[in-house]
Specification:
- The complex is a heterodimer.
- By secondary structure, chain A is α/β, with parallel strands linked by helices.
- Chain A is built from 9 helices and 15 strands.
- A 6-stranded mixed sheet of chain A has the order 4-3-2-1-11-12, with helices on one face. A 6-stranded mixed sheet of chain A has the order 5-6-7-8-10-9, with no helix packed on it. In chain A, strands 13-14-15 form a 3-stranded parallel sheet.
- In chain A, a hairpin with a 4-residue loop joins β11 and β12.
- By secondary structure, chain B is an alpha/beta fold.
- Among the domains of chain B are: 165 residues, Rossmann fold; 96 residues; 125 residues; 103 residues; 68 residues.
- Chain B has 24 helices and 13 strands.
- In chain B, α22 packs across α23.
- Classes of the chains: A alpha/beta, B alpha/beta.
């Protein structure tokens, strides 16, 4: 019976974003190793579960994968799989398309890499079933063509047909190989191993069309356990089960009505975490004035970090205070400050206040919605002081 | 809202005093130092809190009387009448009581704040409370500053927010300078980031280095493998050579043994079976000989037995012997008894005791002589006594007595012997002495024979029992006669059978002897036949021959063993070496060994070099893979980016705060400021008696339009162009317009403290008129030292 691991968006070598250079050493180390540890665990799991294949439907690597550690890790892993009689089926996605010409040549012969056109590859399981894999590698950082149309309809002469697809649901012409579930179902495959979206999700059952999500969360929006899908033929078709593999987790904790900073820290310390966790905290309800002031001054996170042990499992990386009440409109004002803030941000480019000296990614950030949103929130926090310094 | 009355418990010079403000236009009169400003400060204090701390210029108004600090106001609002009481200076308590219900408000501070909301204390102080110094300061201001001050008065909170935002902007600028080469934290962080970014190409280089190393590693691996193969083959050669060299002494020995074995004549080989046959024959011969000997001995024995009386068996013999012994003793005893009986019969009194030596000597010496001698001596004694001398005669008389006594005793003894030997006389008795002694010996012999007989009987009985002829118990009951009789009968019954069986046995033995002799002949013949085959006649020669062969065999076997130990291949190698080089062979072996060892060392050094190179390379690769390389750098960059984003977000918020305030307050003309300006225009027209009709605000500047009396033409002046007197009026108009426009729902009282002293008479009159007009809509408390205003409704502080 067929079994394989579906690991989309491994992003090996990808740095975590949204962390500070002041991260404690232990967390720095954990972060530096996280992707590699997760990948090693994936390999171990494949060997232990004695699967037939490991599928990587795109974005296995960060960029062209041109770092020594990354390549050493991949080659080591692939060789271990080879020794265990496990074959690797791989396509490149929008992040690692550049690797197509380079690194794949250094990989052992149990790794099958899809070309830049849709291809079908028939491989054998340990027990002799024939499995057809269909997929393609990205040629560029985006793929606007309709790729699904090139996927053949299920080959009835073989035992299983599995599609590897790096893309997102959408309209043809979108950046990332847009597809529709309906069209996929028409191909009559046994399983669709999707990549590109980092959130684990089953888009369709019987047959399964699923994103495995990424192997290791990379920023505070990629929360919860991360890993890959172990897929087995249950007799009623191919069924995925989640394998939790990521050694470091991003989590978001919502807290309500803290009476004081100490109360808040006390509550925070009560929360238990299983694994190394980079924590974002959202504070709702009544927030003590001291904490609001600290937040407006950018000190709150520092204070929380200081109050927690560096040796613990959890490290707070972000704190947001929710503004339940709108900022009041002061007497004689034309408009309330919320509106004034929005108009100010919309009215002029933020980068006008940033000289060329500011690194390009930072300037880019403040031209993005995300950066503007951050400034807006900061201004709201600042004005929540109500003009009292 | 109106302030109906105030009650001061203790505040500055005032204690326990109540002022009722009955009028909308309420003049409070008092000369300097009468406590006017104290009353105003009290009202503001109750509303917004008493002055705190020892800040410069802060007057604390500690009651001089020592009465309780504070007091209350009675306010009438649209919602009703309330008493607002604030007591205590450092820790004041505020109480607001609804006078209609008598209930206390739960949150008095909030109640107060709500009362004037959205205005705040600062607004109230700026707009509703003004004094002489403010108006005085107006004259000092430059035209631009005047605009700003006026504007700030039109938007009282804006100024506060602007100032606050200005502080934020400064903080922001402390974080980052727009100019190049700034040393502020974010400028430094930028540079740190750029520096890190500059490391990226080098990190990317590292990957090409890694690839290079990877390719190189394959070549090195191959090279090393070649070296290893070479080493292996050399090691094999070396080991072969070593074993050859080591084997040399053995080989030499083998060669020598072979030579030895070769030098001996080739013997006819004695088969092991033959040796075993000979040994078997020899053993058989020996055995047969022994058998023959034993047989002959038995024959001799039987012949002798037949020739002699029958031999009895042991028991029989012993019984017979012991019986004979017993019988012999009995016969001897009977003989002795007979002799003794016969001899003793001669004597009347039985066998007499033999004479002792003394008796014999006495008998021989004869008593006659003694008697005679005694008699003589007696006579002599009598003689001597009578004749010679008495003593001597006495002596001889004693001797005569002794002799006579002895003679008498002898006589008696002879009488006893005669009786013993009766019927024989003394002489006969002496003659018979020899026979008597013999008889007594026989008597003793008889006794010892009795003992012997007892012993013999016991011996016999023991034998009978010992040989299990008679049961011991049964035998114990038998008398000697019974025993002897039974034994005799048993012996007679035993003797008859033996002779026959002996003859038969002899015949058998003779037959056996013949068979044995035949077998011995056969054996000898067979043996000699075998021996003759090997050219020997004696057995010992044969064995010598066999031993010699055995030694020969051992040598051959040892040679074979060595050969085997060496192995055919090695043996042949050594042999060919030996055949080629003879005695020099060993030296040659050693030379080759040395050469191989040198080769091995050389290849091992190569290998070490290659391994070292490989190890270096692997360590470099490990370094390249371990330090994370580009990924680590990118993680660092990402972290710095994240910090920079957060820091710049904060920076941008700070520097944009002012823009936001401007946006909120100054962005657009609005209805409120229009209303204020309209009201101010109306007041200005009234104060200037229609000269200035219209005030306008344009791009942050205030313009006043003058109506020309002469024509329809209007002239517009900037504030800077106005005379100082007109500016005072403009200021007043705006303030009053604000005070009457803001908070229109619940107009707040205006507190004016000697504000008109700078105005000339005409303007003051106009102003007072305006104020009283305004007071129709909202309460005005007017503090003044102007006697003219101290009219009936005025409160004269001098009266309190």
């Amino acid at each position: 019976m067929l079994s394989f691991i579906h690991a989309g968006d491994v992003h090996l070598g990808n740095p975590f974003t949204g962390l500070s250079k002041n991260l404690p050493k232990a967390f720095q180390d954990a972060v530096a190793d996280a992707g590699y540890v997760a990948f090693d665990r994936l390999i171990q799991e494949a060997i232990q579960q004695q699967v037939d294949f490991v599928l990587f439907p795109g974005d296995l690597m960060h960029g062209a994968g041109q770092t020594a550690r990354l390549q050493a890790t991949l080659v080591k892993g692939f060789l271990a799989l080879k020794e265990a009689g496990i074959q690797v089926v791989l396509s490149f996605g929008n992040h690692d398309y550049q690797a197509y010409e380079g690194v794949k040549n250094a990989w052992p012969d149990n790794v099958y890499v899809f070309g830049q056109e849709v291809q079908e590859k028939i491989l054998m399981t340990r027990t002799g079933e024939r499995v057809a894999f269909v997929g393609f590698s990205y040629r560029d950082r985006s793929e606007r063509r309709d790729r699904l149309v090139d996927f053949p309809v299920r080959n009835e002469s073989i035992d299983y047909e599995v599609g590897l697809y790096h893309g997102a649901v959408g309209q043809v012409g979108d950046d990332y190989a847009a597809f529709s579930i309906e069209e996929m179902l028409q191909k009559n495959y046994d399983y669709w191993a999707l990549g590109h979206i980092h959130i684990r999700e089953v888009l369709h059952e019987h047959p399964v069309i699923a994103y495995s999500g990424n192997l290791q969360g990379l920023n505070r929006k990629e929360t919860g356990p991360k890993g890959a899908l172990l897929v087995r033929d249950s007799g009623q078709g191919l069924e995925p089960t989640f394998l939790s593999l990521a050694p470091v987790r991003f989590e978001t904790l919502e807290m309500t009505d803290c009476r004081s900073f100490l109360d808040f820290i006390g509550q925070l310390k009560q929360v238990e975490f299983d694994s190394t966790t980079l924590l974002s905290i959202e504070l709702n309800g009544d927030i003590p004035a001291e904490m609001q002031a600290d937040q407006a001054d950018g000190r709150l996170l520092d204070k929380v970090q200081l109050a927690l042990p560096e040796s613990g499992k959890v490290w707070p990386i972000h704190i947001a205070l929710s503004h339940k009440q709108k900022l009041v409109k002061p007497a004689f004002a034309q408009m309330d400050f919320d509106q004034a803030i929005r108009q100010t941000i919309e009215g002029q480019p933020l980068t006008a206040n940033l000289s060329d000296e500011v690194p390009l990614p930072i300037r880019d950030y403040f031209t993005s919605k995300e950066g503007q949103q951050a400034v807006q929130e900061a201004l709201e926090e600042l004005f929540s002081e109500g003009g009292e310094s | 809202m109106r302030i109906e009355s105030i009650h001061i418990s203790g505040f500055g010079k005032w204690s326990d005093v109540t002022f009722d403000f009955n009028d909308q236009w309420q003049v409070v009169f008092g000369p300097n130092e009468a406590g006017k400003t104290t009353v105003k400060a009290f009202i503001l204090g109750v509303l917004f809190g008493f002055p705190k701390g020892r800040k410069a210029g802060n007057q604390l108004y500690v009651p001089r009387s020592g009465a309780q600090y504070g007091g209350s106001l009675v306010l009438s609002t649209k919602k009703g009448r309330y008493r607002v009481e604030r007591l205590g200076r450092t820790k004041s308590t505020l109480t607001v009581t609804a006078l209609d219900t008598g209930l206390e408000m739960p949150n008095p501070e909030k109640w107060l704040a709500d009362l004037i909301a959205p205005l705040e204390e600062s607004d109230f102080r700026q707009v509703y409370s003004f004094d002489e110094s403010e108006l005085g300061a107006v004259a000092e201001l430059t035209a631009d500053d005047f605009d700003q001050v006026l504007l700030s008065y039109t938007r009282p909170q804006a100024q506060r927010f602007l100032k606050w935002a200005g502080d934020r902007e400064e903080e922001g600028q402390a974080l980052f300078a727009q100019g190049k080469n700034g040393k502020r934290p974010l400028n430094l962080a930028n540079r740190e980031y750029q520096k890190l970014l500059a490391e990226r190409p080098a990190e990317q280089e590292k990957y090409s280095r890694y690839q290079e190393l990877l390719a190189n590693q394959e070549a090195l691996d191959e090279e090393l493998n070649r070296s290893r193969t070479k080493e292996q083959s050399l090691l094999k050669k070396l080991s072969d050579q070593e074993s050859l060299t080591k084997a040399w002494p053995l080989f030499e020995q083998a060669v020598k043994l072979k030579a030895d074995a070769g030098s001996k004549k080739v013997n006819q080989q004695v088969q092991l079976e033959t040796v075993q046959e000979v040994q078997r024959l020899e053993q058989t011969g020996n055995w047969l000989f022994e058998q023959q000997q034993a047989n002959q001995k038995e024959i001799d024995k039987l012949r002798a037995l037949l020739a002699q009386p029958q031999e009895k068996d042991q028991g029989q013999v012993m019984v017979n012997d012991s019986l004979n012994q017993l019988l012999n003793i009995q016969i001897k005893k009977q003989g002795l008894v007979q002799q003794l009986t016969n001899f003793a019969a001669q004597f009347d009194h039985g066998l007499p005791k033999a004479l002792s030596k003394r008796e014999q000597s006495e008998l021989a010496s004869s008593s006659v002589m003694t008697t005679t001698l005694g008699g003589i001596a007696l006579v002599l004694a009598i003689v001597i006594v009578a004749v010679v001398s008495a003593p001597l005669g006495l002596g001889i008389g004693i001797v005569a007595a002794i002799l006579l006594a002895k003679a008498y005793r002898d006589f008696q003894a002879r009488q006893l012997i005669a009786e013993r030997y009766q019927p024989f006389n003394m002489a006969e008795a002496i003659e018979k002495q020899e026979a008597v002694a013999l008889a007594w010996q026989q008597q003793a012999q008889l006794q010892s024979l009795d003992q012997e007989a007892e012993l013999a009987k016991k011996q016999l009985a023991d034998n009978l029992v010992h040989y299990q002829i008679v049961d011991g118990e049964k035998l114990a009951t038998w008398s000697t006669e019974q025993l002897v009789d039974w034994t005799r009968k048993w012996l007679q019954s035993q003797e008859s059978t033996d002779t026959e069986s002996t003859s038969r046995r002899l015949n058998e033995l003779l037959t056996t002897g013949q068979t044995l002799a035949k077998k011995i002949d056969d054996q000898k013949q067979a043996l000699s036949q075998i021996l003759s085959e090997y050219g020997v006649r004696e057995l010992k020669d044969f064995y010598q021959l066999v031993n010699e062969e055995k030694a020969d065999e051992a040598t051959r076997e040892k040679g074979q063993l060595i050969h085997e130990q060496l192995g055919q291949e090695r043996y042949e190698q050594l042999l060919s070496l030996f055949q080629e080089h003879g005695a020099e062979s060993f030296a040659r072996l050693e030379d080759e060994l040395k050469r191989l060892r040198q080769d091995l060392q050389a290849i091992r050094e190569d290998e070490r070099g290659q391994q070292q190179q490989l190890a270096n390379q692997q360590s470099e690769m490990k370094q390249l893979t371990a330090d994370g390389g580009l990924a680590q750098l990118e993680q660092k960059l990402a972290n710095q980016e994240s910090d920079l984003k957060a820091d710049y977000t904060r920076y941008l918020a700070k520097v944009l705060a002012k823009s936001v305030v401007n946006q909120a307050f100054l962005g657009q003309e609005d209805s409120l400021s229009k209303k204020v300006l309209e009201q101010a225009s109306a007041y200005m027209a009234q104060l200037t008696k229609g000269r200035y009709q219209e005030l306008e605000l344009e791009k942050g500047r205030l313009f006043s339009t003058e109506d020309s009396n002469e024509s329809d033409s209007k002239r517009t002046f900037q504030t800077a162009e106005l005379s100082s007197g007109t500016r005072d009026l403009l200021f007043l108009s705006l303030r009053l317009a604000l005070a009457s426009t803001l908070h229109a729902e619940e107009p707040l009282p205006i507190l004016i403290d000697d504000a008109l002293v700078h105005l000339d008479e005409e303007r003051r009159e106009a102003t007072l008129a305006l104020l009283q007009e305004v007071a129709l809509d909202q309460q005005i408390l007017f503090w003044t030292f102007d006697e003219k205003l101290n009219t009936g409704q005025a409160i004269n502080l001098l009266e309190y």
